[in-house]
Amino acid sequence: MISFKRKPLSKVAPVSSELAGRTAIITGSTSGIGLGIAKSFAASGMNVMLNGFGPLAEIELMRKAIEKEFGVGVAYSDADMSKPDEIADMVMRARETFGQVDVLVNNAGIQHVEAIETFPTAKWNAIIAIDLSSAFHGIQAVVTGMKERKWGRIINVASAHALVASPFKSAYVAAKHGLLGLTKTVALETAEFGITANAICPGYVLTPLVEKQIPETAKARGLSNEEVIRDVLLHAQPTKKFVTTEQVGALAVFLCTGAAASITGAALPIEGGWTAQ
Ligand code: NAD
């Protein structure tokens, strides 16, 4: 009889030690998913640059709280993601503060829900600028340094709406499909430089962005707010549960690890089975 001697289990380094000291910019991280990712990164020992809008005093409290809880460097940039020169400034500031930018998470995003006939052109332009073009400008500003150092992680927070459409979201669906195309192209251009570029595709996460679209969707579809939550939002997700910001944060951390080095150009759904239907 052949006996197999079991090998001792190899000790897997905790994620925190692997990523400690890396620096990440997370756009749109004063709220919702971006804030969740920033906290998950900080918990893994990464320095983070926060970005986004909100009352400055509250943002400063948030910045200090993350710094204190996780013992990492936390900076903040108020750059407007619809303005390419402010995006370049934000990247320069992150470099001045932390030395280099190892990870860029393009997360800032806005939404508007309205039928195509009346969809305001200004909303179309703003959604394309913030949800899509800002990622192009951010990647352009960080990629040379990543290539030189032969390490980098680009994470684009897309959406289930990068994979499938819903009515009344023409600009958002177009921007998110475009963001996935950008992700794949950058992945191919950087594949030999130790850089990965991936799109995270969340389903519904109960953040201010979704809270705001509940009454808009109710109006567009002639439903009550409760019916929108039950029959539109959670109807799309077989789990019947909202995705959490912690779950998205954990996926983003994983994409930064060595274990994920061969995942590039991918669209990673985290949507309770939405797009399996
Ligand atoms: P949110 O409204 O809670 O947060 C959006 C963040 O972006 C905020 O920090 C806000 O200040 C910032 N922001 C908005 N406009 C900006 C600008 N011009 N410049 C800089 N920052 C700006 O929304 P969220 O739900 O956390 O969304 C974050 C990302 O996740 C978006 O790209 C969104 O499309 C995507 N997403 C969200 C869901 C969801 O269900 N919440 C699902 C799929 C994808």
Write the layout of secondary structure elements.
Blueprint: H1 15-19, E1 23-26, H2 32-43, E2 47-51, H3 56-70, E3 74-77, H4 84-98, E4 103-106, H5 121-149, E5 152-157, H6 170-190, E6 195-202, H7 208-221, H8 225-233, H9 245-256, E7 267-270
Parallel strand pairs: 1-2, 1-4, 2-3, 4-5, 5-6, 6-7
Question: Could you name the key traits of this structure?
Answer:
277 residues, Rossmann fold, single chain, 13% strand, 7 strands, alpha/beta, binds nicotinamide-adenine-dinucleotide, 9 helices
Write a concise synopsis of the structure shown.
The protein is built from 9 helices and 7 strands. The chain is of the alpha/beta class and 277 residues long. Strand 2, helix 3 and strand 3 form a beta-alpha-beta unit.
Question: Are any ligands bound, and if so which?
Answer: nicotinamide-adenine-dinucleotide
Structural class by helix and strand composition: alpha/beta
Shape: globular
Mean pLDDT: 94
- Give the CATH level 1 class of the largest domain: Alpha Beta
Tally of contiguous helical segments: 9
Describe this structure in words.
There is one protein chain. The chain is of the alpha/beta class and 277 residues long. The protein folds into two domains: 9-203 and 244-271, Rossmann fold, CATH 3.40.50.720; 204-242, no CATH class. Helices cover 48% and strands 13% of the residues. It has helices at residues 15-19, 32-43, 56-70, 84-98, 121-149, 170-190, 208-221, 225-233, 245-256; strands spanning 23-26, 47-51, 74-77, 103-106, 152-157, 195-202, 267-270. Strands 3-2-1-4-5-6-7 form a seven-stranded parallel sheet, with helices on both faces. The longest helix has 29 residues, at 121-149. It is globular and about 50 Å long. The protein binds nicotinamide-adenine-dinucleotide. Nicotinamide-adenine-dinucleotide binds at residues 28-34, 51-54, 80-82, 107-110, 130-131, 157, 159, 202, 204-205, 207-210.
